[in-house]
Design goal:
Layout lengths: L10 E5 L17 E2 L4 H11 L3 E5 L9 H10 L3 E5 L7 H10 L1 E7 L8 H15 L5 E5 L2 H6 L1 H6 L4 E3 L16 H9 L4 E3 L17 H10 L4 E2 L20 E2 L6 H11 L3 H16 L2
Parallel strand pairs: 1-3, 2-10, 3-4, 4-5, 5-6, 6-7, 7-8, 8-9
Helix pairs in contact: 8-9
């Protein structure tokens, strides 16, 4: 149950759809196999949260086959936008088609791929900047603070927006003095990066209310509220390695109380006008709602 007034036009900026496997096959090289998560189920969630806009993020399990994500955007219409995954083989004509379909950015998922080499991260980031520089798109990065710091000069120089997933990979138990966080805060303060204050359970172990996340969220908002986004990360896929579980075995999603987590957002930002900015105005500007 949501216990605060959610502004009209609020957007969940980070969700995934996992369709029927026969229609939307998973990539053979995937690191996990999620359970199905349908558009109808997501709609039930968003009615409960009182959010009316959504961003569908291409999950790693589909590789560069964006068909499931594009199908979801098509079914949802004007209330949805998407983030794709591409590679060097993806033709420009495909990007043109995805743009018309509602895609507004490309995701570099370094975290799930286990990529920690700063040199490789810098190379991949710069290649994507060059690929997208003439489009009204952005780069979305899922990574750790160490790599955020390693590419911070490139982000500062980039001519397109950059978005960092899930608190930029910060670790809540380390608080606001952890290595790499000043670099992230500087990028946010300068207006060069957006950060999603999303999925606190990925950066904290203090369930169910994740109190140690508050200082991170408050520091990011204070740095520049115009560069903060909120997302649920529904359906909360579990990509962790579990002993005895093969990548082709179904991995149950994490059990998360979405309403309770959303209520924490209102404690991180108690001001209604600022919540309007984060939930409505920032997504409208970035995704073109």
């Amino acid at each position: 149950m949501v216990n605060f007034q959610v502004p009209r036009g609020a957007c969940d900026c980070h969700t995934h759809i996992f369709g029927e496997a026969q229609r939307f096959p998973f990539a053979p090289e995937r690191s996990y196999t999620p359970e199905p998560a349908s558009i109808a189920e997501m709609g039930t969630l968003h009615r409960a949260l009182h959010t009316s806009r959504v961003v569908i993020v291409q999950p790693s399990v589909y590789g560069t086959d964006n068909a499931c994500t594009l199908d979801a955007i098509r079914q949802l219409g004007a209330s949805a936008r998407g983030i794709a995954v591409i590679d060097d083989k993806t033709p420009e004509t495909a990007l043109d088609e995805m743009n018309r379909a509602g895609i507004r950015g490309v995701r570099l998922n370094l975290q799930t791929a286990g990529l920690t080499d700063p040199a490789v991260a810098r190379q991949r980031f710069q290649r994507m900047v060059e690929r997208l520089k003439d489009r009204n798109w952005h780069i979305q990065l899922y990574t750790q603070l160490a790599l955020v710091e390693a590419i911070s000069d490139q982000v500062m120089a980039a001519e397109i927006p950059v978005v960092f997933d899930h608190f930029g990979g910060a670790r809540a138990p380390l608080g606001t003095y952890q290595a790499g966080l000043p670099a992230l805060l500087n990028l946010v303060r300068a207006g060069k990066a957006y950060v999603k204050i999303s999925a606190p359970y990925l950066v904290s172990t203090q369930a169910p209310d994740y109190p140690d996340v508050a200082s991170l969220a408050e520091a990011l908002i204070a740095a520049n509220p115009q560069r903060i986004l909120w997302g649920s990360n529904w359906p909360h896929p579990d990509a962790s390695k579990v002993s005895g579980r093969k990548t082709t075995d179904r991995a149950p999603p994490l059990k998360i109380d979405d309403g309770r987590v959303f209520n924490q957002f209102a404690t991180w930002e108690p001001d209604a006008a600022q919540r309007q900015l984060i939930l409505v105005e920032n997504p409208a500007r970035l995704y073109g709602f």
